[in-house]
């Protein structure tokens, strides 16, 4: 099969696009010549504009997620478990996974935090997040992986990693799934307390 356009009459990108389409669609090469050859370069320009807009939108959403997590840590550090929990979607469908097993539902998760950490600054300690890696999966869904550290009032430390799935609900990012792991050294310290 021979290409139907000479490469010197088009940019290399146009020529390759037409040739590839000719090979892929066989006898439908006339369609390729009229639609693909005319659209390759404008599509590249539009793609660059969309890419810039998409990157700005992505960065904005990532900043919103970082802000949500910082607000969550700030609430924890103030001993405000109710405000800390607002980062989670208030739904019986949310899930939490840890070494203790799987838990489902906002109320069950809140009860777990109350039992394990209490509800005051004196029992909760200081929470920080680090090494956040946030990836938008779609416009309304995101994945966040990072490290967490709780410095307890008795100067012991609990630390580990987490992965969160977040959904954008009514303009706010909410955690719908939380998988939290405790580092082994921290796990052995926790069992002693």
Overview of the structural elements:
- With 193 residues, this protein is an alpha+beta fold.
- It has two domains: 8-52, no CATH class; 57-192, Nuclear Transport Factor 2, Chain: A (Roll).
- The chain contains six helices and six strands; from the N terminus they run αααββααββββα.
- Strands 2-1-6-5-4-3 form a six-stranded mixed β-sheet, sandwiched between helices.
- α1 (12-25) crosses α2 (29-77).
- The radius of gyration is 26 Å and the shape is globular.
- Residues 1-44 have low confidence and may be disordered.
Topology:
Layout lengths: L11 H14 L3 H49 L3 H5 L9 E4 L2 E4 L1 H12 L3 H4 L1 E13 L2 E11 L5 E13 L2 E11 L1 H9 L1
Parallel strand pairs: 1-6
Antiparallel strand pairs: 1-2, 3-4, 4-5, 5-6
CATH level 3 topology of the largest domain = Nuclear Transport Factor 2, Chain: A
* Beta-strand percentage range: 25-35%
**CATH architecture classification name of the largest domain:** Roll
Radius of gyration: 26 Å
Largest β sheet strand count, sense and barrel closure: 6 strands, mixed
> Going across the major beta sheet, what is the strand order?
2-1-6-5-4-3
Q: In sequence order, what are the helices and strands, one letter per element?
A: HHHEEHHEEEEH
List the domain count as a whole number.
Answer: 2
Helical residue percent? Answer: 40-55%
Number of helices: 6
User: How many strand units?
Assistant: 6
Uncertain segments: 1-44
